[in-house]
Amino acid sequence: MALGSSITKAVIPAAGLGTRFLPATKAMPKEMLPVVDKPAIQYVVAEAVGAGLDDVLMITGRSKRALEDHFDRVPALEATLEAKGDDKKLRSVQEATELGNIHYVRQSDPRGLGHAVLCAKQHVGYEPFAVLLGDDLIDSRDELLSVMISTQQKTGGSVIALMEVAPEQISAYGCADVSAVDGEDYVKVNALVEKPSVEEAPSNLAIIGRYLLHPQVFEVLEHTAPGRGGEIQLTDALQELATDIDSEGGGVHAVIFRGRRYDTGDKLSYLQANVTLAVENEELGEGMKSWLKTFVATL
Q1: N or C: which end of the chain has fewer CB within 10 A?
Q2: EC (predicted)?
């Protein structure tokens, strides 16, 4: 596999139960919770396609049929909107169905993120690919995936995205020990720890939900033992690749992201995403800002 080869495939794990949002997610996938006027998962797919990753594989599970339905056409609805002359709503409905080539495979057993990624092996084949977690929304004005793709093409191994968090928050994330690379914006990953205690954390650099993975990760995941929580952790597989720098696909580098990110798996961050994007929405922005000023003044 030559350096510089194009990367076109993205994997989006979406098999989680969404327990943090119960009871809202009892009958609806958490990925379908709306952020302003689109489900959260649509922002993630659009991000992948915008970076040139137009072959998208979703790893789904039971009760996730709504994801497939959302990205499928509804001819009767489109015909009704067209007959009404409601071109704006027609375009919004068609937007999801025209994003890219979206495929689906089921993760029959919820055995962790590492196992979800392993479910993509047959579809991906032996080429580098991206993994985008559906809980993480990256603001469309901030570049991340394109920078990671460029970095992977330079380094040839795997690339992760890191973000600085408050030290007391690091135990909620995977954490990275890194060192600078002369003349480059990216850093070398020396070690990774999944959800360390504050005292044991090697830094305040948290792994966020964007990865550019060398296909060698599949071989590593196949022999990765269950880790924290009894699940197969992608972090554990990346740790092995980070230390095995001389083998094919070895070495892990990282891009430190300093843009805007929303964690839609967290209730407060989810609400913040809705408010922030509503304020910036062309149709809703002015009304939302006016209401917010009045509302805040009453607090």
Answers
A1: C
A2: 2.7.7.9
Classify burial at 284, counting beta carbons within 10 Å of its beta carbon; exposed 0-12, middle 13-18, buried 19 or more: middle
In 3D space, the residue among 19, 180, 39, 188 whose CA is nearest the CA of residue 99 turns out to be 39
Q: What is the dihedral of CA 52, 57, 59, 63, to 10 degrees?
A: 110
Is residue 275's pLDDT more than 90?
A: yes
**CA distances from residue 90 to 33, 56, 110 in whole angstroms, order as listed:** 21, 23, 36
Domain boundaries in the chain? 9-265
Q: What is the pTM of this model?
A: 0.90
Query: Does a cis peptide bond (omega within 30 degrees of 0) precede residue 23?
Result: yes
